[in-house]
Design goal:
This protein has 314 residues and is an alpha/beta fold. The protein has 13 helices and ten strands.
């Protein structure tokens, strides 16, 4: 059996640098807190927390702990407020996120209404809006879908930037719709090249190489604790649906499925999916293993070759 894996994995340079800057800022006996999650990686965050990093959603009062700005950036107003409170600040904003902020600011300063394509609830987008709104009278809006773009009022001129992690193909689709609502559009494609490459590998050629696609469940704790930017973004980037799954590929999943998140309803109910049979077989196997461990060991004669855990339970 051959397992197909993407060529590019691991931390990108922005995540790597943010983690290193944060780790370097931690000092024994000194309190340091991050304003949110430094990066979206549970294991890396747990390691930083073991080293003493705290987390908060509010800027500390004057005289409070050192503050880490996450890789997603922060508004200029927050930086100014931290300075006014005399707080030490460690800025781990990704350089490619700073690029989005810079382009949005330039468009706003040129007097253009600015449209940010991305998830309005994401920390990066909130920060970009903050930077673009610094100029008095600036007009800044956020859209994440073509339908939202269609609802915008007509503008003779419009500037457009993208959240760095927004899928580039969808960004281009939304820009096409924005052109219908504008006399002229100045587009700054600020999508992240690293993310673009990994998204193409994850949902493009990688799936095409596989005969069997085994999807994993998006755990509820990851959904509730914001380990991914948002469920809508996750589904947009990585959801396996009828467009991405080949007609001859077999689809597996351990269950239960979060419909509309890791898998679309159409593929869950398709003949290609063997999820129900897989789950039913898995229940039988689990019951057999549990019986062997808990009951079978007591009913059978001692066997010196039994695993140690079975010997302990016997």
């Amino acid at each position: 059996m051959k397992t197909v894996r993407p060529r590019h994995t691991g931390f990108c340079f922005g995540v790597r640098d943010a983690l290193q800057l944060t780790a370097d800022a931690l000092r024994p006996g000194e309190q340091t807190v991050a304003l949110g999650q430094v990066v979206h990686n549970a294991r890396a965050l747990e390691e930083l927390e073991r080293k003493g990093l705290g987390r908060t959603d509010q800027l500390p009062d004057a005289g409070g702990p050192q503050v880490v700005i996450t890789a997603h950036g922060a508004t200029p107003q927050l930086f100014q407020e931290a300075l006014g409170r005399g707080l030490a600040v460690v800025d781990t904003t990704c350089p490619l996120v700073r690029r989005v902020q810079r382009h949005a600011t330039e468009l706003a300063e040129a007097g253009l209404p600015v449209t940010v394509v991305g998830d309005a609830a994401h920390a990066e987008v909130r920060a970009v809006v903050g930077w673009a709104s610094e100029r008095p009278g600036s007009e800044v809006v956020v859209v994440a879908t073509e339908a939202e773009a269609d609802q915008l009022p007509w503008r003779e001129q419009r500037g457009v930037v993208s959240q760095s992690t927004f899928p580039q193909p969808r960004f281009q689709q939304i820009v096409s719709r924005l052109r219908l609502r504008s006399g002229s559009v100045e587009v700054r494609d600020t999508t992240c090249p690293v993310v673009n490459q990994r998204q193409r590998e994850a949902v493009g050629g990688l799936l095409d190489e596989a005969d069997v696609v085994y999807a994993l469940r998006m755990q509820h704790e990851r959904m509730s604790e914001n380990w991914v930017p948002s469920l809508r973004e996750y589904a947009t980037w990585y959801q396996i649906n009828g467009r991405r799954l080949g007609s001859r590929q077999v689809l597996m999943h351990p269950g239960p499925v979060n419909r509309g998140v890791e898998l679309s309803g159409e593929v869950v109910d398709s003949p290609q999916a063997v999820i129900t049979a897989q789950v039913e077989a898995g229940v039988v196997v689990r019951m057999a293993v549990l019986y062997e461990l808990l009951a079978g060991a007591r009913e059978s004669q001692p066997d010196p070759d039994r695993p140690e855990i079975v010997k302990q339970l016997a």
